[in-house]
Amino acid sequence: MWTVRSFPEGKRNCYKINITRDSKYLIRTSYLYGNYDGLNKTPQFDTHLGANWWHTVTLSNASTPQGKEIIHVTSQDYVQICLVNTGYGTPFISAIEFRTLPNNIYVTQFGSLETYYRWDLGSNQSYRYQYDDLDRFWYDKFGDSKDWSQLSVSIPAESLGQNDYKPPAIVMSTAVTPANASAPLLISWEPENETDQFYVYMHFTELFTTNQTRRFNIMRNAESWFSDCSPEYRRVLTIYTQSAISGKAINFSLERTESSTLPPIISAVEIYRVQEFHQSDTLQGDVDAITTIKSVYGVKRDWQGDPCAPATYLWNGLNCTYGDNELPRITTLNLSSSGLSGKIDPSISKLTMLEKLDLSNNSLNDEVPDFLAELQHLKILNLEKNNLSGSIPSALVEKSKKGSLTLSLGQNPYICEHGQCIENRHNIVMPLVASICGVLILLVAVAAVLWILKRRKSKAWMVEKDQSEISLQYTEQDDSLKKLKKKKYSYSDIIQITNNFTTIVGKGGFGTVYLGYIEDAPVAVKMLSPSSFRGYEQFQAEVKLLIRVHHKNLTSLIGYCSEGTNKSLIYEYMANGNLEEHLSGKHSKSKLLSWEDRLHIAVDAALGLEYLQNGCKPPIIHRDVKSSNILLTENFQAKLSDFGLSKIIPADGRSHVSTVIAGTPGYLDPDYYTSNRLTEKSDVYSFGVVLLEIITGQQVIARNEEKSHIIDWVRSLVALGDIRAIVDSRFEGDFDINSAWKAVEIAIACVSLSPNERPIMSVIVSDLKETLATEIARTKYNSGANSFEPLNVNLSTQLIPHAR
Asked: Are 546 and 538 in contact (CB under 8 A)?
């Protein structure tokens, strides 16, 4: 498959790949023209790795593929591969591959390693994965050398022993020796540029068991490099240069020692050219800020790749600083006449080196934010021709009067200087106050009546409340717990299961969770902390509930321990932790969950809640639905967990339970919080908050001065009609817009202030399944159709990877 996208000469088109920071990767790009445009004229273009030129793609003919490899240590949690149109045809790329390498191999003093040669000596075939676990390409190297003799045996993969570089057994099963047994074995090449620097890795093993000896010295350019090399039988020996080498010609000579009865032998050699990337990427904080601005406002500009680097491809509307030994910083942001609407976004405040900010000729509204005055380097601020309102921050006015800031605010009809707004509004304040007072009097009267009625019912409500609290106060004499005796473990069992509590996999209010094994199957053991608030009560409640409920989207209880003060619950182990860790990137194996992944998780969680409400008799209210209580299996199937706060709706026709407030701030149903009336719709509200997290990737309560809630943030963006500003910006638009809007619609309905306006869980499940089906159809039949024109052909080349 080719990915082709037309873009103007001098511009670049970038592909962003999320990876693990400070890790080592083998990065491979592949190009096969195949005459996709019918012109039968191969293009020429440049490929950049991040902010730096990597290589120029020059194809000799339409049917010959070209590939480039580089071993590169990442400095960020993503890499961008950019194609640059140099005016010689439309750039394209066939494949981008990333292979993780151990950090202790291919170590350099500086720079990255571009593959120069990688030879399987003595072979007439080429190999890669599945023969090579690291998916290196090994090219045959024998037929073009008349000075070598070929050796070949069969070596099982498991018989080579340990070697950090792991050359595959099939490569090590062939080798070459000098055709003249007394002559040296020569490996040489002439670099295109004698200043090019190289690292060399040679792999040896003895293929035969004999009573003879094989010893040789390795010379480099007639100087001793490695003495008395004697490979062991079927043990891999790797010899490599510890620092870069260079020269007009580079010659390695393997020379037989006087005591040796056999000539030199070598199975494989790798040669890498050092490639230094001198251009630093833009400071990550500035990249994050400008990416958020792009997402929030839906900026329709060709903003791709690094914002500032290289300077030739600086983003339109930006200027940057490029100091010696310093990362580029954004100093100018010009978004004049860019169709912006809504508030001035706080992410602008993260561009701390801004000197000029131009947001004129847009439709921005609300007040001029105070954070603009905190930009210490800001010299020019142009906010003309918008719909801004309210007072100008006094700090901005002061800077303008002192001459340190040029402030332009003309043609904003609703804005005024600090203090003048109060005077201008004086004529409408008194009538407004009078109206408010009248409304307050009416509300006080209504509240008094309701208070009297509530007092009359308070005793009945207290009885209901007490019964509800008592309903989960079980002892070990309870019949349900007696049924669980077969799942009861002793404390000594727990010590053995957890290997004396060696591995901690989580912590919470209940206590610490440890990894354990029962008959080689992993389990999670949650130990009750003696200091846990109401911990034993929740312990009993969770055992009682999980022994009677079973569903694929609820975590399964395997057993429990109740021995004196030592109390624990044993669950099935959830290999991928909880949803909150993955949305925030905190999980050790965190990956960016795709839009389809997230919808699958939302459906799973909804099915779990729907079972509690409709599949259980009487129904159960979870009471603590949140993203950290949604656990993920190895295959990212979602399951609800942590039922210590759950309540059973009495089987007497009532629709609610009156109980003390419990749950997690941010997820708590406001109606439940104010009335103490816990209903099934309380869980619907909490699920709606989780769904907003899934959609946006944002925290429930923002960690800023305003501490704004995710519901308010999303509602403000829904009013603007910009779905791309709502959905997680890390998707970079890779989602179906219709399914995204549907998901937002479901979430907003779930968090309605009135419980009666919230949908029931069965409707939510049905709607989410429909939303998921829409996204699956897009990825299956219309992948990339919004941005690219894919062309498909059958390729029979070793550049196409085997299935792993």
From this structure: no
Is residue 315 a part of any domain in this protein? yes
Overall pTM surpassing 0.90 (yes/no): no
User: Hunting for tokens 């394209």 — which residue is that?
Assistant: 92
State how far the Cα of 263 lies from the Cα of 229, in Å rounded to an integer. Answer: 11
> Among 358, 604, 624, 671, which one carries the catalytic annotation?
624
* Pair 738, 629 in one domain: yes
Residue 72 · residue 96 · CB < 8 Å: no
Assigned token pair, 185: 């074995």
Single-letter amino acid, residue 746: I
* 767 shares a domain with 631: yes
Report how far residue 208's alpha carbon sits from residue 265's, in angstroms, rounded to the nearest whole number. 11
Q: Helix (H, G, I), strand (E, B), or coil: what is residue 445?
A: helix
- Residues 153 and 267: beta-carbon distance below 8 Å: no
Q: Which two tokens stand for residue 759?
A: 């949908």
Structure tokens at 33: 């023209």
The two three-digit tokens of residue 55, written as one number: 């290589």
Name the nearest CA neighbour of 639 among 600, 670, 692: 600
7 in a structural domain: yes
Supply the angle between the helices 680-696 and 595-610 in degrees, to the nearest 10: 170
722 labelled catalytic: no
For residues 42 and 122, membership in a common domain is answered with no
Cα distances from 114 to residues 25, 68, 69, 687, in angstroms, run 12, 8, 6, 49
Q: Which helix (H) or strand (E) holds 186?
A: strand 185-189
* Three-state DSSP class for residue 83: strand
Residues 241 and 351 placed together within one structural domain of the fold:
no
Q: Cα–Cα distance between 575 and 633 in angstroms, integer? A: 5
The strand pair at 511-518 and 521-528 is best described as antiparallel
The reply to whether omega before 162 is within 30° of 0 (cis) is no
CA atoms of 774 and 742, how far apart (whole Å):
10
Query: Which residue type is seen at 396?
Result: L
774 falls in which pLDDT band (50, 70, 90)?
A: confident
Please, which residues have CB within 8 angstroms of residue 411's CB and are 6 or more apart in sequence? 384, 385, 386
> What is the domain extent for residue 626?
589-783
| One-letter identity of residue 323 | G
Q: What is the pLDDT of residues 161-194, one digit of tens each?
A: 889 999 999 999 999 999 999 999 999 999 999 9
Query: What is the Cα 497 distance to its own chain's centre?
Result: 33
CATH code for the domain of 77: 2.60.120.260
Considering the domain architecture, whether residues 623 and 764 belong to the same structural domain is answered as: yes
d(CA 215, CA 213): 6
Helix, coil or strand: residue 775: helix
In a 13 Å sphere around the CA of 681, the CA atoms on its Cβ side amount to 18
pLDDT digits (tens, 9 = 90+) for 291-336: 999 999 999 888 989 999 888 889 999 999 987 678 899 999 999 9
Give the span between the Cα atoms of 231 and 754, in whole angstroms.
78
